[in-house]
Amino acid sequence: MRKFLVVLEQREGVVLSRSAEVWKDAQRIACECGDAEVVGVVAVPAGINGLESQLEGNGRLFVVEDERFASPRPDLLLDAVEGVLLKVDAECVFMLHSSSGADLGPELAVRLEAGLASDALDLRMEDGEIVADALLYAGGVRGRYRLETLRKIFTLRPGSGAGAGGSFEGNPIVEAVSLPEQPGVSGMLGVLVEELVAHGEAGDIGEAEIILAGGRGMGGPEGFSMLESIAVLLGGRVGASRSAVDEGWRPHAEQIGQTGRTVAPRLYIACGISGAVQHLAGIGGAGTIVALNSDPDAPIFAAADYGLVGDVHEVLPRLQDLLEERMGKK
Amino acid sequence: MHIVVCCTAVPDTASRIDVVDGVVDLSRASMVMNPYDEYAVEEAVRLKECCGATVSAVAVGGAEHKDVLRKALAMGADEAFLGEGQSGDAYLVAMSLARVIATLPAGKPDIVLCGKLSVQSGRGAVGAMLAEMLGLRVISRVVQVDVVDGRARLEREIETGRQRVEADLPLLLTAEKGLNVPRKTNIKAVMLAKKKPIHAVTVSVAEAQRTVVDRLTSVDRRRNCRMLASVEDVAATIMSHA
Q1: A69 Cβ contact list (under 8 Å, min separation 6)
Q2: DSSP letter string over A87-133?
Q3: For residue B91, which residues of chain A lie inside 8 Å, CB to CB?
Q4: CA distance B60 to B71
Q5: Chain A contacts of B136, Cβ < 8 Å?
Q6: pLDDT digit string (tens) for chain B, length 242 residues
Q7: Using CB atoms and an 8 Å cut-off, which of residues 84-143 of chain A contact chain B?
Q8: ipTM of the modeled complex
Q9: Do A310 and A292 touch, CB atoms closer than 8 A?
Q10: Nearest-angstrom CA–CA distance, B121 and A91
Q11: How far is A62 from chain B (nearest CA, A)?
Q12: DSSP class per residue in B18-34
């Protein structure tokens, strides 16, 4: 029986939605392969239980518990994941291409002499092989990853599961795993980590299914409060283009694009954003894109599904009123 | 202290990049230093200025990387090294860098600085692979670096906020946007840099690529945009997709 290992991520006892999508992707591939089992591994601080009930489909879930996992610790995770992988003899590893996965995937690839498909999308079977696509040159070129090794590692672009739909019966069975002893790992003993949450209540923009993003056309930080109100109304988050971040109107954590985040929300509303190639690189996976801009020739309109030419300072307050009415909040 | 900074040349992604017969055509692209490597070079030079260090700039691949190494010298790197050979997947690039770093006259690095990722491949794998090969801890996406008495105090930017990390040297760090503002190089610095040699290092990595990317095509980001007539239409559209 083939074994596929999924490295999962959780926050405060909840599996990240993008991470659960990776688990489902692995289940889908396992179904297509026939004789395959999906095994998960997740790191938790003390006192976190019940993660298995959040995952659809059979298999096993190895839970690695240590108080230091209260903050993301890719450094501690590496040995734990390697241990589980060798224990079950997994041939393929899937994980989210997050700040954790982007370190863990390459490190594992070196240790296991495995090929690595980074920030991959559209995971699928082709001619009996597991393959996925790559986006290069700020999303301007698409290619197909082929891994020429026995063991394969895929770090998947958040929200990119081709078959994130469908459902699977059952839940995995939990097994506890302890963190391996790590004598002599250079720098290990001297590592101290604490997390400062600098993002206020906004959290991880990558988890958002609705994003309202503002660009230079917002004219200043005050304009973004209009976006914030609408975001609260819709249950979404605020994003920003590079221009808005470079002007100091919004933090880098909200930047979307080539030198910011890649997001795949169900709905992306771009306000006062011109639509430079580098920005579009961050939203290729968005479901529906709505663009508001005062310039009818703005390139964003060519990359959007719906557009309105207008002044955001007039449109957004009106939009908020209309949405409030429709949602029965007035 | 010996600081090694890895840099690479990438096509300016605002330029025209086409795929012709499955091969990427960069003939109309201008090559620039990978933006994330600019942060890395700047930080290396900043650490040199405040703490005293020798900075070795390293690149691997073809002659297209020479201009990038010259820029690193102009920004303040002390020496530049080019590992000659073909580029390959992240694994081969990291192996080549590791081979070059093993030969550096200034000895083993105390800090290796890389950009978070290259805007050409977008993988961000080389830094972490290189760290594993050199036996170093990797701390990625750093936006703040302070070094005191062989111990680094760092801040890294992750999805939920900034994470403060302290660790002993030696370390490999990858630079995130916001780490610093890369200095502009003046004419004098550029002229002086031109006089410095770029040391060629032979790198023969006799291994096959482990990761191949084939079936290249241009991505058409265009969508069929339906222009709406009013804010009422926008509200209706949002409600149906929210």
Answers
A1: A43, A44, A45, A76
A2: HHT-SEEEEE-STTHHHHHHHHHHHHT-EEEEEEEEEEEETTEEEEE
A3: 109-110, 116
A4: 15
A5: 186-187
A6: 999 999 999 998 777 788 988 899 888 889 999 999 999 999 999 999 999 999 999 999 999 999 999 999 999 999 999 998 767 899 999 999 999 999 999 999 999 999 999 999 989 999 999 999 999 999 999 999 999 989 999 999 988 888 889 999 999 999 999 999 999 999 999 999 999 999 999 988 878 899 999 999 998 888 999 999 999 999 999 999 98
A7: 98-100, 102-107, 109-111, 113-119, 134-143
A8: 0.94
A9: yes
A10: 25
A11: 24
A12: EEETTEEE-TTPPEEE-
Q: Which residues pair with B82 in a beta bridge?
A: B59, B200
Q: How far away is chain B from the Cα of A186, in angstroms, using its nearest Cα?
A: 7
Q: How many CB pairs under 8 A join A and B?
A: 278
Asked if A194 has any chain B CB less than 8 Å from its own CB, the reply is yes
Distance CA B239, CA B233 (A): 10
Q: HSE (CB half, 13 Å, CA atoms) of A251? A: 17
User: Could you tell me if A162 lies within 8 Å of chain B, comparing CB atoms?
Assistant: no
| Contact assessment for residue A147 and residue A116, using Cβ atoms and an 8 Å cutoff | yes
Cβ-Cβ contacts under 8 Å, A192 against chain B: 165-167
Contact B181, A248 (CB under 8 A): no
Contact across the interface for A303 and B24, Cβ inside 8 Å: no
* Overall pTM > 0.90: yes
